[in-house]
Write a sequence for this structure.
């Protein structure tokens, strides 16, 4: 090789090594420029270097072109090199020459080959490093992942660009069905295409990431949010262009509009909020978007806390049966009692209104009711053993039980286990609203009656009371709701209705109990209207068992 060329080669080689080992970072443009000069020096017409993350990526032709040069003069292969790295990535390079050009001499071939090998080994290492770096920020399908999102939030915060923007979590609706219907491959395509659509809407001033399955999170400006929500509301995606096959994709979403006074501490705080709101959106039937608000989350936290504390509380015996006497207003004698649940938590009493509605959202309430019945039976058993005064005790049963086929059996089991005669137990059930419930209630009441257990329709007159409820079902007791009891403010029609309902119920053989009696005046009205039994603060609030026992021992009230 001539001297000039040799010198030029040495210089370029040196430059190339400098470029690859530059401590200030690798400059791709410089590198490409050097390679171009090398190609010109050796009369190379074309050179291509490709990188594949894995052997299968190579097989599928899914690689990246790292360097290419083409002077358009021909493509006869002169040198081909392929290396597989220890982590199974592939880098390959092909050098072409014009068909009519002088082939490389042995010496030239060796020199070009050395350059090629140096380059390949550098690229494989350099590229792998970025691949490894990126590995943590992308999922196996190449979507940016949650770490990517969190890193982005941190970066935005550093630039003070968090406030006034929007974070969104969304989940694709019925995506498993779409998977089944069009197959996994087409569904993957659909997901990708929908993702790209959202990404395009967000543009450069935001980010959308997949956080597992069909869950996504995004960050965008307030102005863009409307367009994003438009896509999430439903957007057709084509998965088979030839046959024009499309599916409609929609998502439910949790949105956090980051307020101007928001104090950013960790990205997880934002992510937690949008996921929580997103879960609310899932459970809401019609709404597809739920905006995060401090209040709703606080309520949700309270709800979760009660659920968790409940199972603990049951184990620790924190739930107590309190007894409110039912009094015969003519004699003042205690003729019965209602057991009402009290939760004694950290020395404080939690009233039922704070936890019963929550427990009624799932079947936790059933566990509580069985627990209460058991507690009442244990008290009655003790009174029996101690030969104390005893009255019939009513226990409230949530309507949630009605669908339970084994309800009757369970109730009897608890009562019999405690060896309590059935006549001491009364079950209170509230009015029903649906036909199905009506049938269930009928079945349960009939069953209880056969067992000699008393039944009460509770809160009568409060909900959508139907006369059918008392005509068709053989109740023992009708308990009139507090709002239905005539009082000073509540007179006229109320009294008229009260009088007739009591008369009708008694004519049908039902015992009438007035609930929530607070004044002597009410007692007089009850007397006038022939309603003999009253329960209410006028006599006593619900009492702990020991207090109630004292009342029972005394036997009667003198304040009438
Ligand atoms: P309820 O069955 O209608 O019980 C009567 C409620 O009225 C009780 O409230 C009682 O304390 C209250 N009350 C009694 N007399 C008066 C009065 O003179 N004035 C006023 N203002 N209120 C009076 P509590 O104990 O807070 O219970 C509320 C509701 O929680 C009960 O209504 C019942 O539906 C439910 N509940 C209580 N314990 C249980 C239980 O163990 N299981 C189920 N499923 N529900 C229960
Ligand atoms: Mg009741
Ligand atoms: Mg009631």
């Amino acid at each position: 090789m001539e001297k000039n060329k040799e010198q030029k080669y040495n210089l370029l080689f040196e430059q190339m090594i400098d470029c690859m080992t530059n401590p200030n970072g690798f400059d791709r443009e410089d590198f490409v420029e050097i390679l171009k000069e090398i190609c010109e020096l050796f009369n190379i017409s074309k050179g291509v270097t490709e990188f594949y993350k894995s052997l299968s990526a190579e097989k599928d032709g899914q690689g990246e072109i790292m360097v290419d040069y083409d002077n358009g003069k021909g493509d006869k292969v002169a040198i081909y090199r392929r290396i597989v790295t220890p982590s199974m990535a592939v880098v390959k390079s092909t050098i072409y020459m014009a068909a009519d050009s002088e082939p490389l001499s042995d010496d030239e071939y060796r020199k070009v080959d050395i350059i090629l090998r140096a380059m390949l080994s550098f690229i494989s290492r350099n590229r792998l490093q970025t691949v490894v770096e990126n590995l943590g920020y992308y999922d196996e399908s190449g979507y940016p992942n949650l770490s990517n999102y969190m890193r982005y939030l941190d970066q935005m915060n550093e630039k003070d660009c968090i406030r006034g923007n929007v974070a969104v979590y969304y989940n694709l609706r019925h995506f498993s069905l779409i998977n089944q219907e069009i197959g996994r491959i087409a569904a993957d395509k659909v997901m990708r295409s929908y993702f790209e659509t959202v990404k395009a809407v967000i543009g450069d001033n935001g980010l959308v990431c997949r956080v597992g399955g069909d869950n996504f999170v995004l960050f965008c400006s307030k102005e863009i949010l409307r367009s994003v929500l438009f896509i999430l509301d439903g957007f057709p995606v084509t998965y088979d262009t030839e046959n024009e096959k499309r599916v409609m994709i929609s998502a439910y979403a949790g949105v956090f509009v980051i307020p101007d006074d928001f104090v950013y501490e960790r990205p997880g705080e934002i992510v937690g909020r949008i996921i929580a709101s997103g879960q609310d959106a899932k459970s809401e039937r019609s709404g597809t978007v739920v905006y995060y608000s401090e209040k709703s989350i606080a309520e949700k936290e309270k709800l979760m806390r009660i659920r968790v504390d409940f199972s603990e509380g049951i184990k620790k015996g924190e739930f107590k049966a309190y007894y409110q006497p039912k009094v015969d207003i003519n004699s003042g004698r205690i003729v019965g009692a209602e057991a009402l649940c009290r939760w004694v938590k950290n020395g404080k009493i939690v009233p039922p209104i704070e936890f019963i509605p929550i427990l009624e959202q799932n079947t936790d309430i059933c566990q509580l009711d069985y627990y209460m019945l058991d507690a009442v039976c244990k008290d009655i058993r003790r009174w029996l053993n101690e030969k104390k005064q005893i009255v019939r005790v009513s226990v409230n049963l949530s309507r949630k039980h009605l669908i339970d086929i084994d309800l009757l059996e369970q109730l009897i089991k608890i009562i019999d286990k405690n060896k309590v005669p059935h006549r001491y137990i009364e079950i209170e059930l509230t009015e029903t609203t649906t036909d199905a419930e009506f049938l269930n209630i009928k079945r349960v009441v009939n069953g209880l009656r056969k067992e000699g257990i008393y039944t009460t329709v509770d809160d009568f007159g409060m909900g959508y009371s139907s006369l059918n409820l008392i005509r068709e079902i053989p109740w023992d007791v009708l308990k009139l709701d507090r709002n239905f009891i005539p009082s000073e403010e509540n007179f006229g029609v109320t009294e008229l209705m009260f009088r007739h309902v009591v008369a009708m119920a008694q004519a049908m053989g039902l015992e009438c109990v007035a609930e929530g009696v607070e004044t002597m005046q009410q007692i007089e009205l009850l007397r006038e209207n022939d309603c003999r039994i009253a329960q209410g603060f006028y006599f006593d609030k619900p009492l702990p068992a020991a207090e109630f026992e004292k009342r029972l021992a005394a036997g009667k009230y003198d304040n009438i």
